[in-house]
User: Which sequence fits this backbone?
């Protein structure tokens, strides 16, 4: 028996089609293959998906698929990398106007649990790939590290060391994603986890709970060209979930995948 998988949230999957300018043929083909693979795996499950089916849905030949990916496993890794990169970018765009490092940290934490809630199997695939991919770990961790440093600079966080704090954040969110994906958590778990992380970073419980319970900012409408390049693990620098927030008239200026 084959098991289907809920599709990725539209907020992520739609970015595959986003491009400000015509893409080079190879990159355009790669995106089409990633999109086709997501479609087939969502319908049939990863175990039942074949290269031939991916090629058919993409309107290409199996030889074209193998020209971009050596195996089905490599396609899965490319999808996971793309999901992590794209979620980081969408989070960054959604909270660019927020100056508080603590609130940005809470938003990032909760959005990863949102992914586990919306697409549990894909979230588990992402977690499995992350655990074996130093490249993806560095990319996702760099985003949280920027928020951590901002919170420390603003006096919101007090930590013994960056490394210890990052281990706490990464371990907590990774386990929480698995718990959410397996449907083992009560309602409001995302806010509870974000509160716990903020407390672990030195905030008072009342303040941490208030910040973690604020409404999540909406994802911004997709702008052409903002989608991450799927599966491009060789890029020189990681896509950053944590760009500097836009300056507000009365706020100080400031700043993605466990």
Assistant:
């Amino acid at each position: 028996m084959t098991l289907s998988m809920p599709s990725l949230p539209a907020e992520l999957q739609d970015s595959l089609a986003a491009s400000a300018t015509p893409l080079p043929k190879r990159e355009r083909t790669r995106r089409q293959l990633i999109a086709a693979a997501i479609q087939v795996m969502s319908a049939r499950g990863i175990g039942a998906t074949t290269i031939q089916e991916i090629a058919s849905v993409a309107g290409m030949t199996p030889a074209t698929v193998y020209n971009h990916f050596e195996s089905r496993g490599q396609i899965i890794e490319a999808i996971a990398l793309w999901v992590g990169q794209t979620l980081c970018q969408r989070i960054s765009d959604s909270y660019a106007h927020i100056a508080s490092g603590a609130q940005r940290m809470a938003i990032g934490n909760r959005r990863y649990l949102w992914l586990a809630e919306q697409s549990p199997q894909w979230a588990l695939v992402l977690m499995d790939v992350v655990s074996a991919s130093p490249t993806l770990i560095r990319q996702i961790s760099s985003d949280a590290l920027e928020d951590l440093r901002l919170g420390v600079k603003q006096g919101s966080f007090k930590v013994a060391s960056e490394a210890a704090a990052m281990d706490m954040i990464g371990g907590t969110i990774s386990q929480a994603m698995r718990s959410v994906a397996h449907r083992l958590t009560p309602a409001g778990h995302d806010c509870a986890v974000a509160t716990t992380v903020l407390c672990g970073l030195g905030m008072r419980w009342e303040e941490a709970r208030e910040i973690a319970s604020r409404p999540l900012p909406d994802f911004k409408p997709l702008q052409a060209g903002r989608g991450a390049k799927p599966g491009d693990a060789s890029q020189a620098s990681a896509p950053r979930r944590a760009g500097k927030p836009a300056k507000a008239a009365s706020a100080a200026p400031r700043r993605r995948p466990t």
